[in-house]
Amino acid sequence: MGSRVFSLILLPTLRCNAACDYCFEDKDGSWITLDRLPVLIGKVLDHLVAKGIAELQIHWQGGEVMTLPPSWFSQAHDLIDAAAAARGRTVIHALQTNMIGYSPAWDGVIRAMFDNSVSTSLDYPNHYRHRRGRDPADYDRILQRNVRLARSAGIEVQVIAVANPATLEIGAERFYRYFVEALGVDSFQVNTPFPGGQANAVKRLLPLETEALVRFFIELANVWLERGEADGVRVGPFDELLRYFSGAHAVLPCIWTDDCTNHLVAIDPHGHVAQCDCWVTSYPEHRFGNLFADADLGTLLAGSPARERFRQRPAALLQGDCIACDYLALCHGGCPVRAFTVHGTLFEKDPYCALYRALFAHMNAAAVRRARLRPEHPKTQ
Ligand code: SF4
Ligand code: SF4
Ligand code: SF4
Q1: Sign of the four-CA dihedral 197, 163, 228, 353
Q2: For ligand 2, atom 6, which residue shows the shortest CA distance?
Q3: Nearest-angstrom CA–CA distance, 19 and 71
Q4: Given CB 3.0 to 4.6 Å as the disulfide criterion, which of 157, 209, 219, 275 pairs with 172?
Q5: Pocket test for ligand 2, best of 162, 276, 312 (most atoms within 8 A of CB)
Q6: Distance between CA 10 and CA 96 in Å, rounded?
Q7: Cα of 144 vs its chain's centroid, Å
């Protein structure tokens, strides 16, 4: 059996207790029942057996996962463990939650199923994440309280922050201090927004203006380079880019993989299969198939014209300016959903190309500087 890992983004529910302005999900209120879950997981595990893959990583996302009760997750955990054991596979679980519904009642499940760790989303300043009919300050109050509560219970809380126009205005120093000093978070990642899902006034402002975005990311990289290690703080994507340019093994975000169809797949509560959570509910014409309707996952993936279009993208981008880019082997033209939601086609490079180029050059230079500062190997006499 091979040692490869299969990553599954599983959306067990499309209910959510929030109404964020740049949400791309079609939140139809559905969830998967515990009698249907083993059917779906069984087909995924059978695919691993057929491909000789040892490990399944399930990234649980919504909607909002914590609109299901902790007892649902305990039972799901047992069902999945039994199905994996019967097939000689290992399953690792990761949790992405907005933490609005978090309470200590979740601590047992988070410890047993998620290795006492959660990832949440928190922007600064927050202008677009809110509960229906409430303002963003209400959301921040609940989230900050729950992050502190979870951390006091020993849970590691990682944060994904999406930059917005106000983030670029306040600058990197305040942004960094908010997460590290005000919240005590020691691992966060900054993502770029894209206008996925149904259009609205906020999404029409995207993508963000390049010059300000580049300035912010470079400043944040510098703040992290100067203080991150001393503070014991990890900030993505800078930490992994520094590792990459230092020649170390790096775990880069999916936007910079060779072809994201090689690395993950997403399934929603209806059994729809698509490239990732950015596609599965919002773009039916780009789904790969339905796992409740199709016989098995391997046949579904192999026979999907929608998936084939994703697979053609890396080669198609070589017809454009990516072919002459110094960072092609790292970036591969960037993220398909960012290209699609801005340009209306998969066959364009990522609209944040200029940011990526600037960031790659900056982190490459930082890696070179660090290598020069490293003491020479001691001479042997
Ligand atoms: S972005 Fe996430 S938390 Fe916000 S409304 Fe969408 S699914 Fe809910
Ligand atoms: S479409 Fe973009 S976000 Fe989705 S898996 Fe591919 S690279 Fe990642
Ligand atoms: S940085 Fe830009 S030009 Fe270079 S590979 Fe990425 S998208 Fe293409």
Answers
A1: positive
A2: 260
A3: 25
A4: 219
A5: 276
A6: 10
A7: 21
Res 2: pLDDT: 52
Class of domain 5-302: alpha beta
Quick one: which atom of ligand 3 is closest to the CA of 321? Answer: 3
In the chain, what are the domain boundaries?
Answer: 5-302, 305-373
Statement: residue 180 has pLDDT above 80: yes
Q: Is the predicted pLDDT of residue 378 greater than 60, yes or no? A: no
Contact (Cβ atoms closer than 8 angstroms) between residue 366 and residue 245 = yes
Ligand 3 centroid distance, CA of 327 (Å): 6
Q: Whose CA is nearest to atom 6 of ligand 3?
A: 333
Q: How confident is the model at residue 376, as a pLDDT?
A: 65
Strand blocks (E) in the chain: 5-10, 55-60, 90-95, 117-121, 156-162, 187-191, 234-236, 264-267, 272-274, 289-290
Overall average pLDDT of the 343-364 stretch = 98
- Would you say the CB of residue 328 lies under 6 angstroms from ligand 3? yes
